[in-house]
Description:
The complex is a heterodimer of chains A (538) and B (328). Chain A is an alpha/beta fold and 538 residues long. Chain A contains 21 helices and 13 strands. In chain A, the strands form 2 sheets. Chain A has a 7-stranded parallel β-sheet, with helices on both faces. In chain A, strands 10-9-8-11-12-13 form a 6-stranded parallel β-sheet, sandwiched between helices. In chain A, α10 (239-249) runs antiparallel to α11 (270-289) and α13 packs across α19 (487-499). Chain B starts with 5 loop residues before the first helix and ends with a helix. Chain B has a domain at 6-83. Helices cover 68% and strands 0% of the residues of chain B.
Amino acid sequence: MTAEDHQEPDGSRSMSQVDPEPAPRAQVCLLLEGTYPYVAGGVSSWVHGIISNLPDVTFALLHIGAQRGGYGPARYILPANVAELSELYCQAGPSSGPSSIATREELERRIRGLRRRRAQAPVSRTLVAFHRMHLDDHVDDALLADLARADLSVAELLHGDAAFAVIRELYERLAPDVSFLDFFWHFRAMHVPLVRLLTAPVPDADCYHSVSTGYAGLVGAVASVRTCRPFLLTEHGLYARERDMELSRAAWIRDPDRGDARLPNARPSSLRRFWSRCFAALSRVAYHQARRIVALSEVLQRKQLAYGAAAHKVMIIPNGVVEPPGGVADAGPEQRPEQRPEQRPGRARPLRVGFVGRVVPIKDVVTFLKACDLALRSVDLDVRIIGPDNEDPYYARRCKALVTMLSRDREIRFVGPQPAAALYAELDVVVLTSFSEGQPLVILEAHAAGLPVIATDVGGCRELLEGRGGEDQALGPGGRVTRVASAAETAAAIIELAEAPWLRRRMGEAGRARVHAYYRTDQMIDRYRALYRATLGA
Amino acid sequence: MRADRRPCVALGAAGAIDVAAVLLLGAQPHAWVVLPAALLHVAAAVAVLRLRGAEPTRRLLAAAMTFSLPLIGLVMAMLVVRLRGRGGDELVARPAPVQRSESGAELARRLTAGGPVCEALLAIDAGTRHVALASLQRDADARAIAVLRWSLAQPDPDPVLEAALALEELSARYAERSAEACAEAERRPSRDSALAAAEVVASAIHNGLAEPALLPAIAARARACYGTAARLDEQRAGELAWARARLELAMGDPEAALALIEPVLGTSACEERLLELHRDAAHAARRFELLPPAEPVPVAGPRHELEARHERNRSFALNPSLAMSWSP
């Protein structure tokens, strides 16, 4: 359950267990929720890039997951400057309840003893903090100090009279329209992970850096208060908003009976609001304690401010990529794909369109396939979906069935993951139809390779394609921005680029120039090095 | 598991104290004896109250019984302490909720509490938007999908994204249901399973969920399922006419719809909706000669004339060829 549980023979071990010597105190403790090193993706790539490119900084990693055993083997080889990898899980494994009367009586006796002791002891400050978080939007140092006390155990939360009194009060004030039993179990499900995380040990480090708000942000903020060491926050997406969207469709929250099913509800379910407020409160806690709050793009920064981040703390450090040495990007225009012999006018070759990413619903591959089908009615295309399709096998099957249904098996191919170096040399245009993105590395990599990109207007995509204003915008568009889930707009953009090689060339050059000017890995690393120096020095 | 003997020992001790009190009372007929006997009785009750190994509520009940009824109360206390229930799921089972009928005023209030769904979808408050979206996803009919598609074209990116995710979820749900229904129809071939598969597959055409590019493929699959259903029970093939014709009409082929309806007109059990579909198909095919003459504005006249006119209209509906020979 905690970093101290590594001796448990359950198959999962941390890196610190491998090394018998105690790990030296790291300079930076990275707090990672459900990502690196067990999950591949944009955030994990970013984390790996930061650690690998700052070899002079020692890192401790704290991976926060839902449940032990829920993740496969590590997807990355940890760089040498990682001093420690610890794991922390929100949920305990399944436990068998008290099975016999004797055990039950023993449990009841212990609970009675606990209640007696608690009746004499002062009320837990952590419980008071939970109470405040739900009823008051304001976050201050006192709230953080109460959370950092961690004077509430899971047993006290589950069986204590004070906890029950808090549940009753919150129920009456926040959700009197739902069943008390429902509220009771939701309260438990919401707070048991918080108590576990608050009472768990965190690696010792000179500074704490969380890659999201939420649980990781809470652990980082509290560790910062306890140790009086600085806390940094980098957000790739807006955690509270993403949870909010999930909660609005969550089937595990029962809406109150509407009486007549034909009538609409005027307000969202109290339980959904209860959860939503909890995640918003966790974000505010992290924002309050963070010394600096980093966003990848202006769009995200605006949202952070709307969610309660202080304006004097926010800053933008965009993603960065390594420009390919001597590759397509460095090749002169005469050597680029459009100018290669097989592409000269008279020897028509289909436009090579690539979707680079995981085949998962959030990437909206279905819209990409529909767009390609529409475009194929006007122009000749060679479409490739490049990326792993094992993360959501059902969705991948659905996408492949769609290709078959459209009778496009010849033109559209799923080619699986490809080595990044060779990937972009085989493409003319990259398309990204995601529902949600932070600042996608795919766009930067494609631009670095001199390729135009068609992307949906989500996250920082528009900034990457059209520039952030002034000199950046003067470089010209690096591709086309389309509406979310609009197969027709995406198809129109593909057709436009297929019919105008000069436009592809111009956009590819603009994208390459933009990456060179603003989105290089060395720039990003320099900024983080400076941020760490300033933070640690202070 | 070994039974816990502690309650028995304590109850035995309490019994002994109570018996001593009764004996004392019987042996010494003096007034002063009442006090020690009463004290002994209270001691017995206290002994029961301090029983170990029993829940507090049981202890309280047992002590009350011991105190209220000397000697007999102890036997009852023993029963209270020793008897165990069996968990009794039926005790904790929630009774069916009582549905309270709404008054007209309540109904009107609820109907007018929420604004139009399009307004709710574009609301600044995310909660309001999410409620509207959840409602549309639950309905998932042609109107709901049309509204979701409408919100995709709005300028604010947040509602657009939410509507796109809602449509994606509906599409995923449809893909799953149609795959399951088709698999079931293959696993257990029968008229009903084939018909169910056809209905599920065709639903995306009727509610507008299917993209135009996919319509021919989906329709072909639905036709194949209807065909299988008709083959597996040829006696009842006519009953499928309405569903097949509706599909053809939705696919923009009213002639095919008419060809499916006309042979079964007047023979099918669901005559009303078949006639309605026939009218729609005739309109769509511009085969106005198949339509019954428009109902004239009723004028005051002899009752038998109105009845005759009504009968004539009904005949046209049942046999469109009559309409060709009709003259006003």
